[in-house]
Amino acid sequence: MKKHLVSSLLFAACFQANATVVEMQTDHGTITINLYDQQTPVTVENFLSYVGDGAYDGSVIHRSVDNFVLQGGGFSYDTDFKEIETKPAIKNEPELSNVKGTIAMAKQGGNANSATSQWFFNLKDNSANLDVQNGGFTVFGEITADSQQAIDAITSLVHCGEIPVVGLNKDQCPDTTSGFNAEDLVTINSVIIVNDDPNSSASLQPKENTLIDNVDSGDGTSGGSSGSMAWLLSLLAFAGVSRFKK
């Protein structure tokens, strides 16, 4: 990948981040996210387009991997998982590091520029892996400190495969994706913009992704696959979820 062409001084200056602020209202608490409008404008615009369409309202958290990621933005649920209608894929913007508390875009394996609607929260510092894998995963925001409580509440739930569930124990996990009730899943009730001023969070200082400069290719072939592959729900392989390696 091409080296960044700005000087370290100018780079540091631009990384005094500004952000639109959104609130993700889940049935396990509110997650407030400061978006990095200035550093990842394409990704932020894409995310806000889904927010504006109400695409995430009523969607579910479909993937939780302990000490790795919490993922959503892909599905709603009625009597089975239904994919959110997606827009054209966007250009990768691997400017920032996948440290704990950031939100980044999921995408297909072997294709760095394939992100659409799905996103994930980094549950720990995943920079050594996700900053370089598949062209680097685009970090486009960070949660507030008090939002960690909601994240922890979701990740501490019983999991059926990688799906966090409510009110079920491991023995009650269904054999098929249509075996859930909607209330068994963690729902994102709404995602709303609470401050639309892109200069609203000038005190943020996101960490730069410096590892990507050492990756020879930005075409998504370096660092391993992240892509759409089957994942297990108990005994069922439920295909089509954007994946990446831990």
From TrEMBL:
Entry similarity comment: Belongs to the cyclophilin-type PPIase family.
Function text: PPIases accelerate the folding of proteins. It catalyzes the cis-trans isomerization of proline imidic peptide bonds in oligopeptides.
Keyword Signal: yes
Enzyme Commission designation: 5.2.1.8
Protein name, per record: Peptidyl-prolyl cis-trans isomerase
Pfam families: Pro_isomerase
Reaction catalyzed: [protein]-peptidylproline (omega=180) = [protein]-peptidylproline (omega=0)
GO molecular-function terms, A-Z: isomerase activity
Domain PPIase cyclophilin-type: from-to ranges: 18-157
Biased composition regions of type Polar residues, renumbered to the chain: 199-212
Signal peptide range in chain numbering: 1-19
Species this chain originates from: Pseudoalteromonas lipolytica
